[in-house]
Amino acid sequence: AGSQLREIFDKINNLLSGKPVLTGGRTVSVTQHPQGLDFVYYKLAEKFVNQGEEEVASHHDAAFPIAVVASGIWEMHPRVGDLFLAHLHKKCPYSVPFYPALKDGTSMEEYQRMLGYQVKDSKVEEQDHFLKRMSGLIRLYAAIIQLRWPYGNKQGAHPHGLNYGWRWLAQMLNMEPLADVTATLLLDFLEVCGNALMKQYQVQFWKMMLLIREDYIPRIEAITSSGQMGSLSRFKQFVEKCLQQKEIPLPKGTLQSSFWRT
């Protein structure tokens, strides 16, 4: 409910503002330790990112309530935003976007970690689990750049707004695609953020969508094996449908104004 989200936001904001906050039956304050605030900034940013790969990966709709709180905290406490991006980029280099290259002297295990895979006891996580986590992180990022905390002062610009989404999309399309990964993440991103980008960039946006259909999808097809066609065909259908209808639907789970009255 909207009221619960406000409570969570106020509690985090109060903690970061140096006010005493009751948690787990005891009162804590960042002023209790000289590095208290730095520590809380770091851990909070890390927790937001963890929610992307855990909550949002399993329930796509969860991106919006988490993102609206993260966006509002970022606006009031910019340091959290810097640390959020640092944690996000480390866990998901595709959010930069960046595809790490294998350098001489880097072990395969280390390289897989650089690509965002979880490696435990020399065992690499399954591809579908990896893609699910990356999807959760990209969906959270795509939600943050278009949402603002509705009770903020609204004077300044969004601390990390849609222009960053436009830049991410343009940079993705300037890179050579990766099988499986590129189609999955472009679909995640456009499902969440496409409607907002369409409204903001209008004609330019539709030029970008045409470029994706005419030029970029064939490039993904060229490197995709028959076993990896699932994500590509879903992406292809999505782009086709949007171009036919000249519309990108609002994302599922988006927070309507009525939500804040709950």
Structure description:
The protein is mainly α and 262 residues long. The chain has one domain: Serine Threonine Protein Phosphatase 5, Tetratricopeptide repeat (Alpha Horseshoe), CATH 1.25.40. 62% of the residues lie in helices and 4% in strands. The chain has helices spanning 2-16, 36-58, 63-76, 78-91, 108-114, 127-144, 162-173, 181-222, 229-245; strands at residues 21-23, 26-28, 119-120, 123-124. The protein has a two-stranded antiparallel sheet with strand order 1-2. α2 (36-58) packs across α6 (127-144) and α8 (181-222) packs across α9 (229-245). 34% of the residues are buried. The model has no long low-confidence stretch (mean pLDDT 95). GO terms for molecular function: inositol hexakisphosphate binding; phospholipid binding; translation initiation factor binding. Belongs to the GLE1 family. Keywords: Coiled coil, Cytoplasm, mRNA transport, Nuclear pore complex, Nucleus, Protein transport, Translocation, Transport. It is found in: Cytoplasm; Nucleus, Nuclear pore complex. It comes from Pluvianellus socialis (Magellanic plover).
